Automatic annotation (TrEMBL):
Keyword field contains Heme: no
Nucleotidyltransferase recorded as keyword: no
GO molecular function: FMN binding; oxidoreductase activity
Annotated family: Belongs to the NADH:flavin oxidoreductase/NADH oxidase family.
Protein name: NADH:flavin oxidoreductase/NADH oxidase N-terminal domain-containing protein
Domain NADH:flavin oxidoreductase/NADH oxidase N-terminal as annotated: residue spans: 18-351
Length: 374
């Protein structure tokens, strides 16, 4: 049947599922194509730079949802060159024009707050101290994404039990700062082998205190962060990203399904706005694999809004929305290379290819704001 013969209701249903509106808590999203958090390493001195105004504006659409690159919560949170922070007044002020630009273009903007834990080197630490973690287990050197350079890591120092509230407090203050900078909310980075994941995953966490051992104990610190942040800025402004199935930065779990499910159920108690799960097919950066695992049990257990990310195409995103396995979909590499990704989906236009070599280079333009629009 041709469209012209259909009633209005039916024609509306023809709209691509990814491009249908969605009310996420208090936010009215005009479509479901989310900008995933993407570290771009162009924030010199850990301070967001004016060129980020253009970068984020390019990827903003009216009613679109954007998440910032991972943003450090303190001076011990860093592990890479030129990643932004949100613990100083200068950083908060530097975020303001970027947030304003996204808002001026009609976007909803969350700040991803982050602590790398042991994925660091004493060069990035205050006074050249050892990075912190759940354990003293160090990371083996890893090939960087350009497949040429090797990242070295300094063996970490396990946090003492009574130090953990101090890090919880850093997350709380970072969330407060994010709101002061104008962000609509924060996403707690609980994924990819960084500090919170180093507590959740049993391949790293070998503690014998109340933060180690059982699943409940390993999830205690991340959930304390969730509690502190939701109390500080309100649960309707808080999301969390989790990658239970991931093996990033040598952080793996022997029972990822149980971990993902435990967190989904525990998060319900805090009424957070969304849970953002990385698809099991994403093993670690740049590595994707077929898997029989699925996020469906977590999607079903979690009562809030559900974001799925990792390896999505337009087709898999649409399918996930139709099937109800996610409410919105976060796109990383495609959104990085296609500032007008929702438009391209709408027009069924071809996508620019991403250039892995410039993902993390510090240039303020090349590989950053020079990807062409349609
Ligand atoms: C250049 C680059 C930087 C990334 N930085 C972050 C980050 O800061 N925080 C995060 O949670 N994930 C980060 N990721 C992961 C992405 O958010 C996303 O989950 C991943 O790329 C898989 O989605 P995709 O297949 O749509 O790219 C990064 C990925 C890439 C390619």
């Amino acid at each position: 049947m041709a469209n012209c013969e259909k009633g209005e209701e039916e024609v509306k249903m023809d709209k691509m599922p990814l491009l249908t509106p969605y009310k996420m808590g208090n936010f009215f999203l005009s479509h479901r194509v989310v900008l995933a958090p993407l570290t771009r390493q162009r924030s010199y001195g850990n301070v967001p730079q004016p060129h980020a105004v253009l970068y984020y504006s390019q990827r903003t659409s009216k009613g679109g949802f954007l998440i910032t690159e991972a943003t450090g919560v303190s001076d011990t949170a860093q592990g890479y060159a030129h990643t932004p922070g949100i613990w100083t007044k200068e950083q908060v002020e530097a975020w303001k024009p970027i947030v304003n630009a996204v808002h001026d273009n009609g976007g909803v903007f969350f700040c991803q707050i982050w602590h790398v834990g042991r994925v660091s080197h004493y060069d990035y630490q205050p006074n050249g101290q050892a990075p912190i973690s759940s354990s003293d287990k160090g990371l083996t050197p890893q090939l960087k994404s350009n497949q040429l350079d090797v990242a070295e890591f300094t063996p970490p120092r396990p946090l003492a039990t009574d130090e953990i509230p101090l890090i919880v407090n850093d997350f709380r203050l970072a969330a407060r700062n994010a709101i002061e900078a104008g962000f609509d909310g924060v996403e707690i980075h609980g994924a990819h082998g960084y500090l919170l994941d180093q507590f959740m995953k049993d391949s790293v966490n070998d503690r014998t205190d109340q933060y180690g051992g059982t699943l409940e104990n390993r999830c205690r610190f991340p959930l304390e962060v969730v509690e502190a942040v939701t109390k500080e800025i309100g649960p309707d402004k808080v999301g969390i990203r989790l990658s239970p199935f991931g093996a990033h930065a040598e952080a793996e779990d022997s029972d990822p399904e149980a971990l993902g499910l435990y967190m989904a159920e525990a998060l319900n108690k805090y009424s957070v706005l969304y849970a953002h799960y990385v698809e099991p097919r994403i093993v670690k950066s740049g590595v994707q694999a077929e898997t029989s695992h699925s996020l469906l049990p977590m999607r079903t257990a979690f009562k809030g809004n559900f974001i799925s990310t990792g390896g999505h195409t337009k087709e898999t995103g649409n399918k996930a929305i139709v099937e109800g396995s996610a409410d919105v979909i976060a796109y990383g590499r495609h959104f990085l290379a296609n500032p007008d990704l929702p438009k391209r989906f709408e027009l069924n236009a071809p996508l620019n290819k991403y250039n892995r070599e410039t993902f993390y280079t510090p240039d303020p333009v090349i590989g950053y704001t020079d990807y062409p629009f349609l």
